[in-house]
């Protein structure tokens, strides 16, 4: 009987120990993020800058930025930019959002780092608009990371860029991709039904939040404004408030992916941030 009690006690202790290990907060692990590359993913010429920046006038420009993250558990690409084929179109491609041009392909920037599209494990998308999913077809072997609301959205014009054959993680809200707090999708719905930002915590640079189109320009951020063309303007404004809160809590910088005045401030690939 005594022996049985001992066995029982030992088993209970083992279970308790296992539970404690399981309950360890994920952030106690050493984060696996190693570095991040900023990739040039196109340019957009606007006839009317006010279409994205309420209050602006005259023509305008937006830059297009993608980000590549090296994590111990794989490569993560955030957005895929405008399509690589546009590099061959000297006058660019007209779209609902201005004229798109491309000086350097995403594929060539990956190749400079010794990577092929098939090496990218995860493609996280801020949202499904053309200047963010232009090269998605190169990454059919990657796992998509897209908010469920975006993944299931049927756009009124055009078709959903998401192909049924792709592996996909479709969170409903914030999502810590590797469970170590270093690569976190932040739900910022409004510009589109399931828009998301990306928050990374880099070992030396610290925390940085990438906007996607939750905010297009610094003027919109400073003025707390959202373009009328957004899917849901009140939700877009609430997303700006949420972003302020996350920036404060994470002590993060905000990088606005379409803001041309930020281009000279960034080190582009093959340089990187640690
Ligand atoms: Zn965009």
Helices and strands, in order, run as HEEEEEHEHEHEEEEEHHE
How many runs of DSSP E, i.e. beta strands? 13
Which geometry do the CA atoms define? globular
Report the sheet-strand fraction: 25-35%
The CATH class assignment is Alpha Beta
- Report the CATH topology name: Metallo-beta-lactamase, Chain A
Our count of helices gives 6
Side by side, the strands of the main sheet go: 4-5-1-2-3-6-7-8
* Ligand types: zinc ion
CATH superfamily: Ribonuclease Z/Hydroxyacylglutathione hydrolase-like
Briefly characterize the structure:
By secondary structure, this protein is of the alpha/beta class. Helices cover 22% and strands 25% of the residues.
Report on the structure:
The chain is α/β, with parallel strands linked by helices. The protein has one domain (35-265): 4-Layer Sandwich (Metallo-beta-lactamase, Chain A), CATH 3.60.15.10. The protein has helices at 2-23, 106-112, 130-133, 148-151, 218-223, 233-250, and strands at 33-46, 60-71, 74-78, 93-95, 98-101, 122-124, 143-145, 167-169, 175-176, 183-187, 196-202, 206-210, 253-255. The chain binds zinc ion. Zinc ion (ZN) binds at residues 129, 131-132, 213, 258.
């Amino acid at each position: 009987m005594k022996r049985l009690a001992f066995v029982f006690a030992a088993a209970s202790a083992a279970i308790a120990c296992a539970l404690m290990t399981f309950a360890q907060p994920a952030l106690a692990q050493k984060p696996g993020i190693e570095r991040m590359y900023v990739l040039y993913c196109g340019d957009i010429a606007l006839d009317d800058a006010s279409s994205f920046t309420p209050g602006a006038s005259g023509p305008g420009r937006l830059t297009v930025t993608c980000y590549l993250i090296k994590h111990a558990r794989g490569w993560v690409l955030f957005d895929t930019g405008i399509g690589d084929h546009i590099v061959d179109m000297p006058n660019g491609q007209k779209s609902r959002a201005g004229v798109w041009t491309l000086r350097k392909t995403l594929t060539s920037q990956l190749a400079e780092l010794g990577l092929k599209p098939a090496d990218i494990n995860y493609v996280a998308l801020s949202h499904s608009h053309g200047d963010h999913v232009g090269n998605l077809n190169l990454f059919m072997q990657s796992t998509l990371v897209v908010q469920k609301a975006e993944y299931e959205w049927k756009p009124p014009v055009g078709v959903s860029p998401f192909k049924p054959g792709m592996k996909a993680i479709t969170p409903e809200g914030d999502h810590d991709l590797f469970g170590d707090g270093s690569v976190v999708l932040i739900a910022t719905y409004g510009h589109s039904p399931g828009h998301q930002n990306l928050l990374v915590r880099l070992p030396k640079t610290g925390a940085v939040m990438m906007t996607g189109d939750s905010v297009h320009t610094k003027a919109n951020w400073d003025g707390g404004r959202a373009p009328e063309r957004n899917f849901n303007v009140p939700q877009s404004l609430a997303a700006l408030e949420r972003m302020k809160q996350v920036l404060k809590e994470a002590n993060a910088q905000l990088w606005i992916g379409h803001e041309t005045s930020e281009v000279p401030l960034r080190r582009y690939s093959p340089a990187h941030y640690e």
